[in-house]
Amino acid sequence: MDPFSGKGTAPLEACLGGRVGIGNDLAPEAYVLTRAKVRPVGFEEVRSWVERNRSFIEGYRSSDAPEEVEVFYSKRTLRQILAVRELLERPETDVEWFVKAVMLGILHGSPVTPSRSSAHTRSRCLPDTSSARSRNWA
Ligand SMILES: C[S@@+](CC[C@H](N)C(=O)[O-])C[C@H]1O[C@@H](n2cnc3c(N)ncnc32)[C@H](O)[C@@H]1O
Question: N or C: the chain end with fewer CB closer than 10 Å?
Fold first, then answer.
């Protein structure tokens, strides 16, 4: 059991060892990432989720996003992100939680100065959308 489990390494290792892993963290994104790790889904499940939702995603027309998020994406990509965000607002299935975790990893970039508040969702090669406003939006 890890009472401050962050990205969920301890629960994941417990599961890999055939044990029951328990993680706790006050950050909601820690839950999203940990859940995806302890209940992973396969490539085909993700592909089929995308296929099932493709027409919704491609037909999405709203582009209502904070300016600080908008600057990083082309209009089409931003609409796709917004569509996926809407689809995953209240995930239910393993594949939905998994895709949400993947999206969190993709959407948050590397800070110049690491911040404890969003350390779970940083990628080294993508733009930093991790201000408090952007994090709440994502
Ligand atoms: C350094 S990370 C944990 C890393 C993790 N233990 C590991 O081994 O990979 C610290 C975590 O503590 C969480 N945290 C901080 N204060 C907390 C609190 N009062 N209750 C629950 N979690 C908390 C943070 O959100 C953060 O994810």
Answer: N
The verdict on 56 and 26 lying in the same domain is: no
Enclosing domain of residue 60: 41-137
Q: Where are the alpha helices (DSSP H) in the chain?
A: 9-16, 28-38, 43-59, 67-70, 75-87, 94-107, 132-137
- Predicted confidence (pLDDT) per residue in 58-85, tens digit: 999 988 888 888 888 999 999 999 999 9
| 61 alpha carbon – ligand 1 mean position (Å) | 38
Asked if 127 and 106 touch (Cβ cutoff 8 Å), the reply is no
Q: Whose CA is nearest to atom 5 of ligand 1?
A: 5
Q: Give backbone dihedrals phi and psi of 123, rounded to 5 degrees, phi first.
A: -115, 150
Residues 130 and 82 in one domain: yes
pLDDT tens digit string along 30-54? 999 999 999 999 999 999 999 999 9
What lies within 8 Å, CB to CB, of 94 at 6+ separation is: 39, 40, 41, 45
Which tokens belong to 128?
Answer: 């930093």
